Amino acid sequence: MILPMKFRFIAVEGPIGVGKTSLVDRLASRFGARSVLESVENPFLDRFYAEKKGAAFQTQLFFLLSRYRQQRDLAQGELFREKVITDYIFAKDRIFAHLNLTDEELNIYEKLYALLAPDIPQPDLTVYLQASDSVLLGRIRKRRRTYEGELAETYITEMNKAYNYFFYHYPSSPLLVIDTSRIDFVEREEDLQEIVDQIEKMEKGVQFYAPLGSPPGPRRPIRSLLPGRGGGRLFQRGGK
After folding, report:
1. Which of 78, 93, 136, 221 is the most buried (most CB within 10 A)?
2. What is the pTM of this model?
């Protein structure tokens, strides 16, 4: 059954390996929406993972312009005719730029980004998927993409920190933050349904949702608790 979707444009975000594309595919099916997936093709990516000199700057500029073209096409076409769910936001490009570029490269990058960003449509809802470093590493290893085999554990840690910092200060849309460390929305229908339920309940502001996990047997009820305490929690912060 196709569910009504009150947000016309939803973006799912999160660090490498968290399951963005898998969730977008499943949400698009549930809501009868069009899925728009980020292109990961980049001729400089292998050189970047091999830590070749200058490759980070080339890789970042290629991704920036590729994401810009895709988002501009979205704004001019499907976005105003049908419901859309994407597996990235344009602004996430800056996370990797600040992680990977030198100060000189970043100065050039920021000037180009500032020229492009005003043309990009903002989502009506952003869903930010979190996971612990060890969970991310396990998921990355499991999917066995050749170029990702070069990723160091320290890079995963720094990337995860950068994502958390970015979304803690994210101002562009209502934000639903979901800790996916203890759930499997690909294999367990119950876990996927919990995420769907949270999206349907979402209004303005920032909402944090930490599922209780998906062990075999009866599920425990969700409790509304402040962040930092144990168990599943749901916490609303501010208005937006």
Report:
1. 136
2. 0.83
